[in-house]
Write a structure and sequence with these properties.
By secondary structure, the chain is an alpha/beta fold. It is 32% helix and 19% strand. The protein contains 14 helices and 18 strands.
């Protein structure tokens, strides 16, 4: 178990749109800024060349890869990438790279040199399992040679100094690959951090209904991974923010409760409500009170805090995946400092002793969590999602006086109840 992940902060960077230049060299110049946020792991979107056939937008999707062994010249060259790794390590941060092993671009090196490794439909045509992914073809892992090739790709990047990998739609990749990969990593790079984009339940149902492989979360942990996405629950809270119906928030509470109980103790879920595929929190609500409560969920919960570049600058839209769309560097100082305060909480060494985060099944437009530590200590995370004061009641809330980490103010829980408007991280006084 990689216990350090309990207090880790992962910062996702879309290199193309992080700076005006959109290069590794420009990102190196921003590493001090990222370090100033107290980040542990810099996670960057795929670094390989993008296919040209059926390209989406002007620049194409970084998830449509033409050659895994090459560096996208739009981002820089191999020496630039090596320099990024070196400079990230010099600031005592790790570098994680996105790997897209379920599919390749429609003009990829694999397609041209090993078309037998590509997925073919019942008509014998090159195809993919998800029609909307019109710029890619899927891979066919029934070929041992493909498995070896892909394991060698990871071996290559690890030899350069890459510390971890985020696997795109990991659930769609057969277990045989992950078993081989994990064997190699255990032998050569045992400290490698493995993050799986485990897919949401509707996607699992769809794929299995079409008779395709789709690994469960438990299988992903068993075969290779340390961290999973929280996609069993995430849709529910986003539905609540879009539709403002409390039933979706009730679904979220129960989904979180189940999701966490089914997550093996040696593994984690990333904690964050934003990424490159999801609408920004600020898009979902322009109410600053709700926004503060939403942002404060991630650091309180067990598992690494996940920040998509721009959360700290209150970015108001998800960056275009297929075109140039540079992150705004204008920011609200009060909001920026609030995000830094949340990170300060996540980095507290006490969280290394955090055992569980329990979701309380409360009623109303609120969320409540109870953290339990190795020594029996308990803390509460309480959040209003209405923008107004919410009464939170639950038998797990123990009466007494508490101090809020975020504000330093004292609060009282009485009759297992407390009124909450701003997010609270409560410690027994």
């Amino acid at each position: 178990m990689k216990n350090f992940l309990k207090t880790s902060v992962i910062y996702q960077v879309y290199v193309r749109n992080f700076t005006q230049e959109g290069t590794f060299k420009a990102l190196v110049k921003k590493l001090d800024y990222i370090k100033s946020l107290n980040v542990d792991i810099v996670y960057i979107l795929p670094v390989s060349p993008i296919g040209k056939v059926s390209r989406k937008g002007e620049l194409g999707s970084p998830y449509s890869i033409s050659d895994y062994t090459k560096i996208n010249p739009e981002l820089g060259n191999l020496d630039d990438f090596k320099e990024l790794i070196k400079e990230t390590h010099a600031r005592d941060m790790k570098l994680m790279v996105d790997m897209v092993f379920n599919h390749t671009s429609r003009d990829s090196w694999i397609k041209e040199n090993h078309p037998e490794w590509m997925f073919h439909n019942k008509k014998g045509e090159l195809s993919n399992k998800v029609e909307d992914w019109s710029d890619v073809y899927d891979l066919d892992y029934s070929h041992p040679e493909l498995i070896k090739y892909m394991v060698d790709v990871i071996d290559y990047y690890s030899s350069l100094g890459v510390d971890g990998y985020r696997f795109d739609v990991a659930s769609l990749i057969p277990k045989e690959f992950f078993v081989s990969l994990k064997k190699m990593l255990n032998e050569k790079y045992p400290e490698t951090i493995m993050l799986a984009e485990s897919v949401h339940p509707g996607f699992v149902e769809f794929l299995r209904g079409e008779n395709y492989t789709c690994l469960s979360d438990g299988e992903l942990i068993e075969y290779a991974f340390d961290i999973l996405y929280p996609y069993n629950s995430l849709e529910n809270i986003r539905d609540y923010m879009l539709k403002k119906e409390e039933r979706y928030l009730d679904y979220y509470k129960y989904a979180l409760f189940v999701e966490d109980s089914l997550t093996p103790a040696r593994s984690f879920r990333i904690r964050g409500l934003e990424n490159h595929d999801q609408k920004r929190l600020y898009e979902l609500t322009h109410d600053m009170t709700i926004l503060r409560n939403l942002a404060a969920l991630a650091p309180f919960m067990n598992g690494p805090m996940f920040i998509y570049n721009g959360l700290e600058t209150k970015s108001d839209h998800v960056q275009d995946l297929f075109n140039k769309d540079v992150m705004s560097w204008e920011y609200d100082e009060k909001w920026f400092n609030f995000i830094k305060k949340l990170i300060e909480y996540k980095k507290n060494p006490m969280n290394l002793k955090l055992n569980t985060t329990k979701t309380l099944l409360t009623k109303g437009a609120n969320l409540a969590f109870k953290n339990t530590y190795n020594d029996g200590t308990k803390t509460y995370g309480l959040f209003s999602l209405s923008g107004k004061e919410e009464l939170i009641n639950d038998n797990d809330l123990v009466d007494g006086e508490y101090v809020d980490f975020l504000s330093g103010k004292t609060y009282t829980i009485k009759d297992h109840s407390i009124k909450v408007k701003e997010p609270l991280y409560l410690f027994k006084k």
